[in-house]
């Protein structure tokens, strides 16, 4: 746009507003490799001491960070894979196939998409206790998958909607079945959607805190989110430099994925507006 | 049914199964649980019968004879098969045989009486201490034993030589039942508890303030990054995406550090002679400012993304035309951009309201409802009651009743949104009819 307008007041105003985030993020990175004497804002020496959690297990009977990271990775990958697989078929059915109750299913997906799922946590907690899935990673994965699913189906339906009908009609004219048409002709068209949804649900699971905290609080199935929260909670005299190192370690995959796939992920926010 | 139908239903099946299990079932169960007295005290499976000291105290208040209640609490010594085989294992076969011959089937109401009888036997242990230990093998009490059924409880009661009539049996069974039962007390409790009203009020304040911050700030950021030079816009966008993408635990940890009494704010203000304090929990107002900013920034982050993408969809020709006509920025925003953003804003507001009402993770991580209960919103209140109560038993039933309110609001609102956001447009019929 042309400049019939002074932009510097806006820049200054936004800069002041952004200050807390900039300060927090700057020190999140800085404090992991420096030490600061109490009462000062400027660090006085470089150190790698805050990263020692990577190599030694804390004496307080906490799990090793690598075990916890592996748990988190399993949790995020399995959730993401299940969400994508289920959304791929359900999204196609809702977008393209004639079936009984189609309107009802679509309405259901939309309603669930808006519905604040976290309100169900008490009932889910009791359900898992009754079925013996409480305190297992499998239970948390199932629940997280279910909660991500309405968004996933909705997003995939959106991607299928953009595939031209002509592709399918041509396939059918050549004598292929609907299933073959889906697998051979339509699926390749929605690969970008699959990738975006996969990344998105991976990140959603990676960042999830409440579900693992409530449904699998035990040491063996701990994920990074609960590991970190316990670290913060247990400490009487908080060592923020160490928290920040663990935090940066935990946030790194998220930041990297966003740096690389920024545009892909933003597409999903357009469809999934849940706060 | 046509083949496409079967394929469609088959394709839907996994999704239907998962949603049925983890949406439909929990919604129904929340309602069911809300009418029970389930807690961590009663357990969630069926209950058991157990007579405790508490039960003994309660019994007379319910019309149970005092003497009989006292009898229930007493230890009796009964010579039975179980005790005899324990005795032969610990003190040898001969002694056990003698006890069986002399005392089998007898009941003593104190150890002293039994020991006196035992002293008459030849094969008894020599030391009195050993004798007492051997007598204790016959101690029978129903106190603090879990019985799986009413019948088992009553059988044990008659086993120790107490006979009860039918009404006494009923009273005993009811008083000693430890499991959960059906009740509407949860709802009575909610409507009479001041803390519930407070939580409802807090929720209202929280949603209103946070929503204003997130929509206002989100809009401002979207507009600013739209007009600012490319480099600046990209920088602000990168900064403001952080609250949304950082995992909540880290994001809140950073706020905690900022406001901690050894953190940034305290150290910074020390230069101006202000005493360090925990700025997040120092007072109610502080806590409120913190949770509104913490949540508001996350909302603004999302708002910026959504509004920006909606603004990119506005045809550039409209903006160019307005500039040719001499419109300034304010007029451009007011007359062209905002009217085009009406639906995205409404949409985001509607969805954020609902998710703000129900979500509590950022508050839980930051103030946890404190100081005191000043920032405890309804969702967090339900969570504390059912799943995270430091003070006492976890009250699943009461928590479910609290959550059910939110579930009802959630379902009602999402159905309403479905209606206003033009559902029919979204369900165009498939074009291949086979």
What is the CA-based Rg of chain B, rounded?
35 Å
The biggest sheet of chain A, with number of strands, parallel, antiparallel or mixed sense and barrel status, is: 2 strands, antiparallel
Strand-residue proportion of chain B = under 5%
Strand content of chain A: under 5%
Q: What average pLDDT do the residues of chain A reach? A: 84
The tally of structural domains of chain A comes to 2
**Helical segment count of chain A:** 11
Provide the CATH top-level class of the largest domain in chain A. Mainly Alpha
Low-confidence stretches of chain B: none
Cα shape of chain B? elongated
Q: Can you tell me the CATH superfamily of the largest domain in chain A? A: MetI-like
Strand numbers in spatial order across the main sheet of chain A: 1-2
The percent range for helix content of chain B is: 55-70%
Helix/strand order of chain B, N-terminal first:
HHHEHHEHHEHHHHHHHHHHHHHHH
The computed structural class of chain A is mainly alpha
């Amino acid at each position: 746009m042309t400049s019939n307008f002074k932009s510097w007041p806006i820049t200054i105003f936004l800069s002041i507003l952004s200050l807390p985030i900039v300060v927090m993020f700057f020190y999140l990175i800085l404090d992991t490799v420096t030490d600061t004497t109490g009462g000062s804002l400027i660090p006085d020496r470089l150190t790698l001491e805050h990263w020692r959690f990577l190599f030694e297990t804390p004496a307080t009977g906490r799990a090793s960070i690598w075990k916890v990271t592996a748990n988190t990775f399993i949790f995020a990958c399995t959730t993401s894979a299940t969400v994508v697989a289920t959304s791929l078929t359900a999204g196609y059915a809702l977008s393209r196939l004639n079936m009984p109750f189609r309107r009802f299913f679509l309405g259901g997906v939309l309603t669930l998409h808006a519905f604040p799922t976290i309100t169900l946590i008490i009932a889910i907690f009791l359900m898992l206790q009754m079925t013996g899935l409480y305190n297992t990673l499998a239970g948390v994965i199932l629940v997280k998958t279910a909660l991500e699913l309405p968004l996933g189906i909705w997003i995939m339906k959106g991607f299928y909607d953009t595939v031209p009908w002509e592709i399918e009609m041509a396939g059918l004219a050549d004598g292929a079945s609907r299933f073959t048409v889906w697998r051979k002709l339509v699926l390749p068209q929605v690969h970008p959607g699959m990738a975006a949804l996969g990344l998105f649900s991976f990140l959603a699971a990676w960042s999830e805190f409440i579900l693992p905290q409530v449904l699998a609080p035990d040491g063996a199935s701990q994920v990074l989110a609960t590991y970190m929260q316990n670290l913060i909670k247990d400490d009487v005299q908080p060592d923020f430099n160490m928290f920040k190192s663990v935090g940066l370690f935990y946030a790194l995959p998220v930041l990297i994925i966003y740096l690389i796939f920024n545009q892909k992920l933003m597409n999903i926010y357009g469809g999934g507006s849940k706060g | 049914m046509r083949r496409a139908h079967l394929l469609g239903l088959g394709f839907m099946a996994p999704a239907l199964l998962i949603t049925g299990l983890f949406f439909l079932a929990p919604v129904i169960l929340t309602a069911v649980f809300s009418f029970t007295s389930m807690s961590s005290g009663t357990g969630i499976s069926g209950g058991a019968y157990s007579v405790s000291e508490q039960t003994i105290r309660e019994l007379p208040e319910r019309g149970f004879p005092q003497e009989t209640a006292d009898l229930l609490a007493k230890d009796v010594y009964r010579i039975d098969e179980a005790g005899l085989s324990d005795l032969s294992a610990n003190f040898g076969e001969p002694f056990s045989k003698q006890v069986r011959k002399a005392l089998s089937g007898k009941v003593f109401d104190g150890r002293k009486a039994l020991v006196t009888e035992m002293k008459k036997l030849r094969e008894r242990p020599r030391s009195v201490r050993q004798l007492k230990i051997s007598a204790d093998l016959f101690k029978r009490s129903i106190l603090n034993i879990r019985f799986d059924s009413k019948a088992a409880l009553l059988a044990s009661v008659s086993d120790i030589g107490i006979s009860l009539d039918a009404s006494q049996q009923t009273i005993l069974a009811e008083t000693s039942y430890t499991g959960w039962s059906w009740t509407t007390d949860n709802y009575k409790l909610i409507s009479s508890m001041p803390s519930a009203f407070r939580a409802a009020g807090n929720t209202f304040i929280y949603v209103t303030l946070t929503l204003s911050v997130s929509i206002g700030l989100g809009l401002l950021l979207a507009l600013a990054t739209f007009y600012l030079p490319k480099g600046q816009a990209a920088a602000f966008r990168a900064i403001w995406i952080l609250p949304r993408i950082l995992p909540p635990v880290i994001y809140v940890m950073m706020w905690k550090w900022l406001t901690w009494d050894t953190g940034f704010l305290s150290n910074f203000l020390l230069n101006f002679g202000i005493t360090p304090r925990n700025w997040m929990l120092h007072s109610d107002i502080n806590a409120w400012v913190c949770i509104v900013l913490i949540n508001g920034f996350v909302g603004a982050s999302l708002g910026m993304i959504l509004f920006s993408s909606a603004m990119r969809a506005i045809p550039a020709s409209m903006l160019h035309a307005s500039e040719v006509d001499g419109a300034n920025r304010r007029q451009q925003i007011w007359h062209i951009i905002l009217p085009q953003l009406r639906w995205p804003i409404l949409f985001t507001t509607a969805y954020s309201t609902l998710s703000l009402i129900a979500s509590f993770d950022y508050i839980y991580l930051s103030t946890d409802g404190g100081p005191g209960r000043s920032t405890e919103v309804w969702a967090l209140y339900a969570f504390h009651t059912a799943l995270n109560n430091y003070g006492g038993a976890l009250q699943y039933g009461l928590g479910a009743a609290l959550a059910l309110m939110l579930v009802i609001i959630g379902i009602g609102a999402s159905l309403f949104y479905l209606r206003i956001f033009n559902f029919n447009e979204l369900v165009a019929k498939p074009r291949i009819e086979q």
